[in-house]
Automatic annotation (TrEMBL):
Annotated GO CC locations: mitochondrial matrix
Class of this enzyme: oxidoreductase
Segments forming domain Ketoreductase: 10-199
Locations listed in the record: Mitochondrion matrix
Family from the record: Belongs to the short-chain dehydrogenases/reductases (SDR) family.
Organism: Scleropages formosus (Asian bonytongue)
Name the UniProt record assigns to this protein: (3R)-3-hydroxyacyl-CoA dehydrogenase
Lineage: Eukaryota, Metazoa, Chordata, Craniata, Vertebrata
Coiled coil region boundaries: none
Length: 256
């Protein structure tokens, strides 16, 4: 998809923007004219993302920020820093921060289960709540909240009972948020990536990855930019009558 100018004059915040899908979303949004706040638990990674973002549109200004999405205090502090810098909250919000702590159900530590839920599900809740409240308080006529789920939240995956549960929760959270926030002009949608080339999937053993790819009708692993393209569509007015949906970006994995 060729870059356009659909997001000119928009302010966006992207959690998990320091790498992987989050970084690709930041790049895509900036290429379409948005000013982007790159938020990540690793502020150094966020700063590296910001350094590579285009600034070809008028009044574009990007910002790096540290955030622990599992902490309300940290998310509140992120919003405060954005409002101090831009004198307004973002109208676009993408929750791409996420972690894995993989293990079989019979062997998984409770702490690993809790941590994945805290970051992936509670973190998405906190970011959605804090930034939607700010949008409502500011009286924005429209806003777009995009959550990053996973196809395994729909289908399950061996060794990922915590991750699958967290991402299934993200879908339910997004659908409910869409119902509650639509009256304020805020749309909420979820993107469900399949196996995408990110630092997270780099951990998958080659033998396992080969087996997974044999199940993908398109025969290859996806690219972060292909997820970012969908996020840009959902952030733009081209999707102005779309809310409460989950869009799969999987190359056909688990179709049927």
């Amino acid at each position: 998809m060729a870059a356009s100018s659909r997001l000119v004059s928009k302010l966006a915040v992207v959690t998990g923007g320091g790498s992987g899908i989050g970084r690709a979303v930041c790049q895509r949004f900036a290429s379409e004219g948005a000013s982007v706040v790159v938020a990540d638990i690793d502020e150094g990674s966020a700063s590296r993302t910001v350094a590579a973002l285009p600034r070809g549109h008028r009044a574009q200004e990007h910002m790096a920020a540290a955030v622990d999405v599992s902490s309300r205090h940290s998310v509140d502090r992120l919003l405060t820093s954005i409002q101090h810098q831009y004198f307004q909250p973002p109208s676009l919000c993408v929750s791409a921060a996420g972690i894995t702590q993989d293990e079989f159900l019979l062997k998984m530590d409770e702490e690993d289960f809790d941590r994945v839920i805290e970051v992936n599900l509670k973190g998405t809740f906190l970011v959605t709540q804090v930034f939607s409240r700010a949008m409502v308080s500011s009286g924005f006529p429209k806003g777009s909240i995009i959550t990053i789920g996973s196809i395994v939240g729909k289908m399950g995956n061996i060794g990922q009972v915590n991750y699958s549960a967290s991402k299934a929760g993200v879908v339910g959270l997004t659908r409910t948020a869409a119902k509650e926030l639509s009256k304020f002009g805020i749309r909420c949608n979820c993107v469900l990536p399949g196996f995408i080339a990110t630092p997270m999937t780099d951990k998958i053993p080659e033998k396992v990855l080969s087996k997974v790819l044999s199940l993908v009708p398109m025969g290859r692993i996806g690219e972060p930019a292909e997820v970012a393209d969908v996020c840009a569509f959902l952030a733009s007015d081209e999707s102005r009558y779309i809310t409460g949906v989950s869009i799969e970006v999987t190359g056909g994995l688990f179709t049927g």
